[in-house]
Known about the structure:
The chain has 170 residues and is mainly alpha-helical. The chain has helices at residues 2-24, 43-47, 53-89, 95-126, 129-137, and strands spanning 158-159, 162-163. A two-stranded antiparallel sheet has the order 1-2. A hairpin with a 2-residue loop joins strand 1 and strand 2. The chain starts with a helix and ends in a 7-residue tail after the last strand.
Amino acid sequence: MKKLVLVLMAVTLGLLLTMPAFALGQGEGRGPDKGGDKGYCSKSVLWKLNLSDEQKTKIEALISENQKSIRPLREKMFDKSVALRRLWSQANPDKGKITAAQKEVRALRDEMQDKVTAMRLEIHKILTPEQIEKLANSHWGRGPGFGPRGRMRDHHESGPDGPGPGMIYQ
């Protein structure tokens, strides 16, 4: 009887101690609708412009189309980045292969950036001059960078992959 009571108390104590972890739920992830709401198509910034229903529909279509067109590029870039990591992890890394893989990753990143730029220019065509001015004042599209308040300003910060900006594009 004493053993049963001790086991039940241990299980109850274990459950009570782990409940806060379960209450937090799953993380936000890294998808396009993640909680940070930063990036090139921050919906919260766009919606603060008092968009008409027609503008919202057009912008949502542009964003959706852009995300669909970029998805295969992201997947390719991920695959190329993994291959690049493997090249670097070899005992005797081949300079030619590494350089070629880096060029492929850069080309994919540039292609993605071109698509984002085209989308942003299309969004500008939909907005009124007042909305464009308000958008410019909201620092739209500016994320953390090397500026005075940017995340990359101090290379001693530690991220999920260790200190510094790292070698591989994420």
